[in-house]
Specification:
This protein is α+β, with helices and mostly antiparallel strands and 208 residues long. 12% of the residues lie in helices and 24% in strands. The protein contains 3 helices and 11 strands, in the order αβββαββββαββββ. It has helices at 4-12, 75-82, 143-149, and strands at 61-62, 65-66, 69-70, 86-88, 98-102, 112-117, 120-126, 155-158, 166-171, 179-184, 190-196. The strands form 2 sheets. The chain has an 8-stranded antiparallel β-sheet with strand order 4-5-6-7-11-10-9-8, with helices on one face. Strands 1-2-3 form a 3-stranded antiparallel β-sheet. The two termini are 21 Å apart.
């Protein structure tokens, strides 16, 4: 069961389906980012990438941003780092919050969403088990898996909407302002995660 906030994000972004931005002329392949090593054997099967859809290069998602596009980058820098089609709808008010998402969308979820606010790249949201967070966390893992992977760094908070759900907040163990935040469902499984810088990484309702 996915957290209610993930469903709210999908509804808030439904208007994006009819909007598609121009694909950048040149694509940049994101370099791999360093992540802490671990010996944990997660209690979930290996991740599976969706068929026939664009996925980021392994290690591209990091505490500092997405490949060559750091948090604070412009929309154009993020489009170049992704290198493929990103669709989305701009906010009515200048500097407002909005998302860009890989196209075409799938019925299983948004997979990855790039958040912008004040015309800056501030956060990424992930609901696919094919993508690894820095440090090795991913959708489908148990709270115990996350606690072992990020031992000594996990800040636990109760979920705002899901009874029994939690927010597992992990500031960058190496220092810096980046934070990865895992949301668990009532069964204690990671239903989605996001990474970015405060305060946007802590927005419970995304851009809503």
């Amino acid at each position: 069961m996915k957290a209610t906030v993930a469903m709210a994000l999908l509804l808030a972004l439904a208007a994006c389906d009819g909007q598609r931005e121009t694909t950048p002329a040149s694509a940049v392949s994101p370099p791999a980012a360093k992540a802490p090593s671990t010996d944990v054997n997660p209690s979930t099967p290996p991740p599976t990438a969706p068929a026939n859809v664009a996925v980021p290069a392994p290690g591209a998602i990091g505490y500092a941003g997405f490949g060559p596009a750091p948090f604070g980058a412009s929309e154009e820098q993020v489009r170049m780092a992704w290198g493929k089609d990103l669709g989305g709808m701009k906010p009515d008010a200048p500097g407002g919050c909005y998302y860009l998402m890989p196209q075409p969308r799938t019925q299983s979820g948004y997979r990855i969403a790039f958040m912008f606010e004040d015309d800056r790249f501030v956060r990424m949201d992930v609901d696919s088990d094919a993508e690894l967070a820095p440090g090795g966390g991913r959708v489908g893992m148990s709270e115990q898996d996350i606690q072992r992977l990020y031992a000594g760094h996990v800040q636990v908070q109760g979920h705002k909407y899901v009874d029994g759900g939690k927010y597992l907040r992990v500031p960058n163990p190496g220092g810096g302002s980046g934070v990865v935040l895992f949301e668990t469902d009532a069964e204690g499984r990671v239903a989605g995660w996001r990474i970015g810088e405060p305060p946007q990484v802590d927005y419970v309702e995304g851009c809503s």
